[in-house]
Amino acid sequence: MRKLILLIAVLALLVVPTVSARAQGDVEYTWSLAALGQGGWLGGPLFEDGSAGGGGAFSANNGQLLASLKPVSWTEDADENITICFSVTIRKGPADALPPMICTPPSPVTDTAIRITLFGDPHMFRISNAIPED
Fold it and tell me: Any idea what DSSP says for residue 61?
């Protein structure tokens, strides 16, 4: 009986990640954001339901401020510009050093990196179609 319960528990653990991944739907876009210099990097998939995956990190003041970045959601405006929002969790440094949620400026899907400015610093930002258009 114990072996049966153990088998069911293991099978349940294998099924949960599959169900969770499917709940987000298909990937519509992929994206990346990287500071040019000290700062951070972030990226991942943008799912068709408006949720976002992936993650990244941030460092400032020679490692005195460290944060984890987790994509949360994205939207597309009437001009087909995309805004991506991500949560910020401070790992080291003052708890109020960064806002708890940051969103990128509306940006086009270019399939190549473009230069944007966040917090007064230059960054490279890329949004690509998950399935390239012919």
Answer: T
- The number of beta carbons lying within 10 Å of the beta carbon of residue 40 is 21
The low-confidence residues of the chain, meaning pLDDT below 50, are 1-22
Given a contact cutoff of 8 angstroms between Cβ atoms, the answer to whether 59 and 40 are in contact is yes
Q: Output Rg (C-alpha) for the chain, integer angstroms.
A: 18
Place of tokens 């460092």: 59
Paired tokens of 34: 């990287």
Query: Amino acid identity, residue 105?
Result: P
Residue type, 9: A
- Given this model, what pLDDT does residue 134 score? 59
Cα(120)–Cα(48) distance, integer angstroms: 31
The pairing of strands 82-92 and 101-103 is antiparallel
Q: What is the pLDDT of residue 131?
A: 81
Distance separating alpha carbons of residues 62 and 48, to the nearest angstrom: 37
CA separation for the pair 76, 82 (Å, rounded): 5
Contact 53, 42 (CB under 8 A): no
Q: So what's the pLDDT on residue 16? A: 40
φ, ψ of residue 11 in degrees (nearest 5): -60, -40
